[in-house]
Specification:
It is globular and about 75 Å long. Helix 8 crosses helix 9 and helix 15 runs antiparallel to helix 16. The chain has a five-stranded mixed β-sheet with strand order 2-1-3-15-6, sandwiched between helices. It has a three-stranded antiparallel β-sheet with strand order 12-7-13. The chain has a three-stranded mixed β-sheet with strand order 9-10-17, covered by helices on one side. The chain is an alpha/beta fold.
Length: about 450
């Protein structure tokens, strides 16, 4: 989650690097006779990639896909940096392991704007999936999209104590105060994971970074950021949230299953795991719309996906064909249908296209929501179609996120307030950028 190694230079140099990043060793032409072979690096299990590749190769004569299995995301990152530096045996599609803007700034990616724009102009991608693959107004990856964000509540416990399902974040706080009387927490905020704060800032329409010409503007104290921080502060101050760590996953799931914590902000990819591991509360949960800010004028869910693109590396000999293959993998009905897994009865979530409705039902497990299962379809589709991504990642975000994690641990432990943490992050981020000779205001 936002963890990557980013080489930081001045804002002007970053912009120049991004522009030049697409100047790889190949020119996108196929000098040899026969089909072009596109090497695709992924750490996904073969059962997910092989059926899709087989379908592509059976339906395409001029381009063929070949998957090269990687160990994991960290190994992929190291391997790609090595091959791009050498200029030899560079793959043409790579599963994303970091923010596209940072990877483009490192000079790791090809500019595929000319190849991808004809597809984006046709509207085959949902708008919210596009920002994640852009840097400096150029495209460096094929959108893979995002997972819809919604909430699931333990309806049995909500009903037991006569608490209404929350529609706003203020409602969540009110529900938490009622549950507190019965020794129940309304949510969980792990001490090592500030993603709830990040997501709330995004939902409020904010971003900690913006660009203005060749200058970076940093604002951790914007109205949107303070609005998000106020929700967190009330949850913490009133002792309404648990602090179960994510590092012990079995213990975490067991705690969620216990009925002692009753509201989970979640996404479709997590549902199967809950169904598999819940014992006590299986069937007690209900999907509901993600709570909104009380003054919201329209329904919004955060849609930024740090890994939301299929990368086309610098040095790829066939970027045009790689783009074509990547678009097919992420938008075609044939590719989505080929991803079906008989054991789980699920498809890979089609998070890049405007209308995933034909595949929504498969994302909902049979038993998790019990009698509330029928509600899941509308909740998921509403969440997906309401996704917005205005989040901008700055050139030093790796170090900034690590610092934010330290501050977040202090917030959840009540050692500092959210406001104090945001003030610290403002000073830290600006000072860090200045130390790297980046043109910054804030």
């Amino acid at each position: 989650m936002y963890r990557k190694q980013v080489r930081v230079v001045s804002a002007t140099a970053v912009a120049l690097t991004v522009v030049l990043a697409g100047c790889g060793t190949g020119d996108g032409t196929n000098e040899a006779e026969g089909p072009v072979t596109i090497e695709w690096w992924s750490w996904d299990e073969a059962k997910y990639t092989e059926p899709v590749v087989a379908k592509f190769n059976a339906t395409h004569d001029d381009i063929k896909l070949k998957v090269v299995k990687q160990a994991d995301n960290l190994g992929t990152a190291a391997n790609l940096r090595n091959v791009v530096a050498s200029g030899k045996n560079v793959p043409c599609l790579v599963k994303n392991f970091g923010e596209v803007a940072g990877l483009a700034g490192e000079g790791l990616l090809s500019d595929i704007t000319d190849s991808l724009e004809p597809y984006t102009k046709k509207g085959i991608f949902i708008d919210a999936a596009i920002p994640a693959v852009q840097a400096g107004g150029k495209y460096y990856a094929v959108p893979t999209g995002f997972q819809p964000s919604f909430m699931m509540i333990n309806r049995k416990v909500y009903d037991q104590y006569g608490v209404q399902a929350p529609k706003t974040w203020d409602d969540v706080i009110s529900a938490g105060k009622e549950f507190k009387k019965h020794g129940v927490y309304v949510m969980n905020l792990a001490g090592e994971d500030p993603s709830t704060l990040v997501n709330l800032v995004q939902q409020a329409g904010g971003s900690w970074y913006k660009t203005e010409g060749d200058k970076w503007k940093v604002d951790f104290l914007s109205p949107e950021s303070l609005k998000a921080g106020d929700i967190i502060q009330q949850l913490v101050d009133n002792n309404l949230v648990a602090n179960q760590t994510y590092t012990d996953r079995p213990a975490l799931i067991s705690y969620f299953d216990s009925g002692k914590m009753v509201s989970l902000a979640t996404q479709t990819w997590q549902l199967a795991n809950y169904e598999l591991n819940y014992k006590k509360s299986l069937g007690d949960w209900e999907p509901i719309d993600l709570p909104q800010f009380s003054d919201a004028t329209h329904f919004v869910t955060p849609a930024h996906n740090a890994n939301g693109g299929l990368l086309v590396p610098k040095g790829c000999a066939h970027p045009k064909e790689a783009t074509e293959a990547g678009v097919w993998l992420n938008t075609s009905k044939a590719a989505i249908d080929a991803s079906y897994q008989k054991d789980t009865k699920q498809y890979t979530w089609p998070g890049a296209i405007p209308d995933p409705s034909p595949w929504v039902d498969s994302a909902v497990p049979d038993k998790l929501f019990g009698t509330h299962k029928a509600k899941a379809r509308d909740v998921i589709l509403k969440a997906f179609k309401s996704g917005k991504d205005q989040w901008v990642v700055g050139p030093n975000y790796t170090g900034v996120f690590a610092e934010l994690q330290d501050q977040w641990a202090k917030i959840t432990a009540k050692k500092i307030t959210v406001r104090q943490a945001l003030e610290h992050m403002q000073k830290f981020t600006v000072a860090d950028l200045k130390s790297k000779n980046v043109n910054v205001e804030g």
